[in-house]
Amino acid sequence: MPIFILSARGISKGEFVPEPGRPHYLEIPDGQMISADEKYRHKAQDWLDRVQSVADGRAGRRSGEAGDVLLLVHGYNATLDEIRQRHEMLQADLSAEGWRGLVVSFDWPAGRSPLNNLEDRSDSAEVAQYLVSGGIGLLIKGQTRGCQTNIHMLGHSTGAFVIMDAFIAAEKRGEYYRNDWRIGQVAFVAGDVSARSLHADSQWAEPMFRRIMRLTNYQNGFDDVLGASNAKRLGTAPRAGRVGLGEDAHSKAVNVDCSEYFRELDPESQASKVGWWNHSWQFGNRVFARDLAMTLEGRIDRNYLPTREKRDGNLVLRDAPRPVHEAKWLAMNRN
Fold first, then answer.
1. Fewest beta carbons within 10 Å, which of 14, 135, 153, 199?
2. Any idea what DSSP says for residue 122?
């Protein structure tokens, strides 16, 4: 299956460069490296039609019913090869866990230093604008034309910041602000945003929560990369991906603590992995993928997913299968 990518990298002499540029719509054939080659680039509407067609086809539902798209937004320190690997691993694991949607990546020029966070980059607003004009804008236009494909978003590391900033950027554009567009599920993995930015009274998060169904924050207290990010801010802004959401979290937000699960996780037991282990173990991990798959499907309440255990009022990730009779439930619903 090809890889679909919306890239906000600039192009010079036929190659991607580490600076923002106008959106490019890529369809990379299976087994090929991500490239700016013209043969992989499409016009925006043609690309969107292809994405929608593949997503709806993967759904395998009754004629006329729409599929699902998960827009993956990577964080800092991501090479084109790492972006491809994470994309492929997430698609494979979600599919193996029963999710029938399509992963699409949003690629932006990220720095190589773990302390070169997007909050400190002068081009952060420009990157968010490209996600809006090139990605969310297409969604809005599609929804106003009756497109029913379900759009979800996953932000890894500073990808969470990109997503939140994109909703802010969309609110500033009158044609987007006035339209009744919606995003389904949003998930943050190792989210490099402050925990308080996701509180109920956060003005920065308000535009995002207004447009989405649910935010799921996956927390890991052993994430040393986020520890460095927090240290850079002198401990004044603990990161949501490390400390969780807290009691003041928005009502649309739910926190899943993965710390205990990760503590017992042997890296050698996970065949597929890429990047800094403590910060990106979720890619290639089937337990995480199972929880995310059921989250994206939205059929089971957030408090009753079998991959979560409630302890002292907190949801904790655990290794558990899907409900044993779930397939029969779905078969009965189709009758």
1. 14
2. T
